[in-house]
Batch of 3 targets.
Target 1
Amino acid sequence: MNATLRIAVLAAATAALAACGGQAVKPTPPANAGAGARPVSTASSANVVLASASGSLVSGKLTLRPMGDGVHLTGEIGGLTPNSTHAIHIHEKGDCSAADASSAGGHFNPAGQPHGQVDHGAHHAGDMDNLVADAQGVAKVDAHASGVTLGGGAPNDVAGRAVIVHASPDDYKSQPAGNAGARLACGVIKVGR
Ligand code: CU
Ligand code: ZN
């Protein structure tokens, strides 16, 4: 490698490091531009740190990744009643500041659909299947939200919104939120960290 080339390679490596080290750069969404274009996820993953709400002891950590027709959530949630079943949804506002997490708003619903069950007809984009806690009160999360993207800023982008765990199971039919009860934990979907 000659000296000039070596300097060029070094400069490129330095620029790449600088790009990774700073604040996450908001990607421009050219893939989503234009009427009728199908929105695509621009982020490969995101994290959620679930903190307790409504005086619960429930907390957890989730990872989100684009998968198939939407976004897949994996992780663990603890502090639940042993062998209990709980609703989990994506809510529209990434704001967990209220003690009862009411600040996160309603279910994420950019398409104006009724509440329902994912993969069973009409449903909110933020609707997902119930969690089940084991005998230790820990739920291993393996949930899917369909019709959503991760990053890119399209109307169905879940980045920056909130995940909420509820006190009761979702009955997948009561409007507007499946009769799922109090909000036990809340966390914001954060891309790029
Ligand atoms: Cu909810
Ligand atoms: Zn819903």
Target 2
Amino acid sequence: MAHEYNPYENMLSTLEKAANMLGLAPAEYEALKYPERELKVSIPVRMDDGSVRVFEGYRVQHSSSRGPCKGGIRFHQDVNIDEVKALAAWMSLKCAVVNIPYGGAKGAVKVDPRTVSHAELERITRRYTAQILPLIGPERDVPAPDVGSNAEMMGWIMDTYSVFQGHTVPGVVTGKPIEVGGSLGRGEATGRGVLFTARELFARLGKKLSDARVAVQGMGNVGGTTARLMAREGCKVVALADVSGGVICEDGLNVEEIYQHCYVNRNFLETYNAPGVRHCTGNDVLTADVDLLVPAALENQLTEDNAADVKAPLIVEGANGPTTVEADEIFTKMGKYVVPDILANAGGVVVSYFEWVQNIQSLMWDEEQVNSMLEKIMRRAFAEVWDKAHEHNANLRLGANMVALARLVSAKKIRGIFP
Ligand code: NAD
């Protein structure tokens, strides 16, 4: 990519616009432009061959005004501090949009998890946990999975933290396996939240989601689940992409089979073949002729280079930050509706919140209860964002940022600035 996009600047630019629309004085939101804490750690790990490698890791806490910090841990070879800072700030905004009592944080380890053995991955995860130990805890900062991390790794984090405390502390991390305090419904929660927001958007526009042709970028937790749930909804999922490229089938892809191939069996899409399925580039998937596009892989996928070619009139952001500021402006001019990340993919953190509530009270809820409470929260949040955007004649991204910012600023005002 020719242009280097800085997601933190992206976040700041939207925040500034939302603050202006709300008529906030700079002093009211100045503190939100900076993370409260940034920790960089070195993670020495003995590799299987006896050598020692030192990995780099981060934990950034953006805001704790509304409650304990909350945010996933990304395992990716290209992470940098600006990306983690942006992701942490988006978590503060996300928790505020859906109105759950959390602040925002994010963590990362600079490693491609596919290039290390399972035992090495466990040692990296456990040592990273030990390095960020002073920051985390059920009342301080609660990690969760993100790109490149999964439930098993959250179990290692819970165990490592608990060993240091001398007793089991399930509420230190969410997205854990069910057997050690994970919540039913958490695994599919982000994708299910994407489905609920897409349903709300279609309903507001007088359309039926079940009639839609859909393209999804990303075949991981979010993209894979979204594609499956959309297919079960009756949508025709015609285009899918992962890091290896894309597949297209005008008559609709066999999503369950692809999910099994990619997510369960950990293969890339490039090795998936079926009658009527055509291989293409990832960009062909983003620009496919569909009613709904769900970018659910990484940030900066929809840019000024490809935005004008995007045919989908409706975009629901499964990933964090998939659309650059420039692309967003192009979409607004084209009259597209974009449901922003901080609303669309908030289902994950909502059910993480349910998991944490169950952990600290030793409760166990059934999946139906979790899904129905998630739906209630997502529908309420969508309505608030939709109304706020229309009240200010703004797009949904600004609507969501205004809802979130108003809540964050109000909490800050009530608490005051120490000393
Ligand atoms: P994941 O690691 O499970 O999956 C990532 C997917 O993206 C993989 O299929 C990978 O092949 C694909 N991918 C990576 N680079 C790509 C590229 N350049 N082009 C096309 N595809 C590419 O990650 P995930 O948990 O599904 O997270 C995806 C996005 O959703 C991230 O932005 C993450 O921050 C966000 N998110 C995740 C959760 C969650 O609960 N897991 C919650 C909210 C937001």
Target 3
Amino acid sequence: MRKNLRAFFEQTFSCAPLFVARAPGRIEFVGNHTDYNGGQVLGAAINRHVWVALAPRRDGRRRLVSAAGGDVVTLPNGGEKKQRGEKSWANYPLGVLVALRAFGRRVPAGFDLAVMSDLPAGAGLSSSAALEVASALVFLAAVGEWDVPPEAVAEIARHAENNFVGVPCGLLDQAVSCLGRRGRLVLVDCAGPRFSTVPLPAGARFWIFNTHAKHALVEGLYAARHRECRSAARALGGPLLAAVTPAILAANRDKLSLLLFRRASHVVGEVARVNATITALQVGNLATAGKWLSASHRSSKRLFENSTTELDFLAARLARTPHVFGARLTGGGFGGAVLALASPKFSAAQARAVVAAYGNKFGTAPDVLRLRAAGGAALVRD
Ligand code: GLA
């Protein structure tokens, strides 16, 4: 990938990049919509990445190009003008520039920047967060900042997403992309935030089934859930739902509409499922961890209503397939992918059978990815 990116950069800009960074996508293991509610969430960085290459320019121009296609985005006089339509991918790096300044950091005045990726976009694997994080690393390197802690890079990248791109996400995606560790899950406790890792038992395998089906209003729906959670928390007397225990929720049931009660029940339940999953993983019990993952999906389907018919089909079908411990939608929902936690005995033939059954029902085939828990984002030295 590095060689291809370099060749693409040289071909587009007729010069060599000076800085290259790569940032992994992530799976959300369990802890759905807990992050912006101040709760805990378990994720893993994956061995699929967004790569960003950069060469500084003296004339203040900014040019950005993506190997995924489209014209070069040129900002002749610098600046961070928000892009629309097929150029809107450039809002991720541009938003990072704005965020860096908001955090009191310098940014390169002019630059050429190229992006290449083997991480599918729109699959719920956080390609946007990976693009933000890799962009942040090359921008920081271009002003001589090589050692910014990964926790700080994550906050900068999230700021870009919240304030420039306009999605009110929590810290999960950016934190896991920055702090991933091979063979381990990243535990983000958004109350601090505090970060740690949990070892994955050796017999754990990740399979992703990407439906490509995506709700047209996905960002609006995410923001709507964010508002519903805030309203529920306010009605219960606190700023954030993660602080609400199941007992408090039950005792205050009459303060919430049915809809807000369902939303709150999902988040409160997810917080408990994260803790229960950690306990199961600590004793190497993947069967129990998998049950919590499947329970998380059912809660998404019934209470948070962020699933789709396609995701429900895959999650249910996978959960009853031999050698699968559990399955759930991964990420924001409203489309995207299902994660199956499986044993090493789960085979490609079994995955194909699931794809065939899906094809019979929906007339399309999900992409299947086998992934492993990988290290976090880094500058790549030649
Ligand atoms: C998206 C957001 C995250 C998180 C998940 C749901 O991935 O970007 O911050 O809220 O959805 O858990």
